[in-house]
Design goal:
With 151 residues, the chain is of the alpha+beta class. It is 36% helix and 34% strand. The protein is built from five helices and six strands.
């Protein structure tokens, strides 16, 4: 929870906009609450100065136990660690897929950096919902199915 409180005001503007568009709330209110009240798992990406650069996690979906809702948020400092982050990503995805054969979520269509990251790491974009969330903005639905290599 301390990591969420620390990171929330420093989020990338695209992540802040996504919170507002989807929930109509500021990340400082939502992020710590989601982490403490959710039944999922959360991890932090820590920078060289021991600062929280990003948080990511997975939330189980009760009706579909093989599906995990994935999410990630970061500060602009994540770009300083781009190589490390991209190198670590396949290992993290394999770890998530051990528990959830299918992972996915929705993403604000304006969040270009996260969309590029998702495409680069094998996520498929299933459809665009033109009016999603409280702001009724376009969001993309995305998913990734576990490959036999990590089964």
């Amino acid at each position: 929870m301390a990591d969420a409180i620390d990171l929330a005001p420093r989020l990338r503007e695209a992540d802040k906009n996504e919170f507002r568009a989807f929930l109509g709330m500021e990340p400082e209110a939502v992020l710590p609450f989601d982490i403490t009240q959710g039944s999922g798992e959360t991890w932090a990406f820590i920078g060289d100065q021991e600062e929280v650069v990003g948080l990511f996690g997975v939330q189980p979906v009760d009706q579909h136990p093989t599906f995990g809702l994935v999410w990630a948020v970061s500060s602009p400092d994540i770009f300083k660690y781009r190589r490390d982050f991209f190198k670590l990503t396949p290992k993290v995805l394999d770890m998530l897929h051990q528990k959830y054969p299918l992972i996915g979520n929705h993403i604000d269509a304006r969040n270009k950096a996260h969309i590029r990251w998702l495409k680069r790491h094998g996520f498929s974009f299933l459809r665009t919902i033109p009016e999603f969330g409280v702001e009724r903005r376009p969001f993309h639905e995305f998913a990734r199915l576990r490959s036999t290599a990590c089964a």
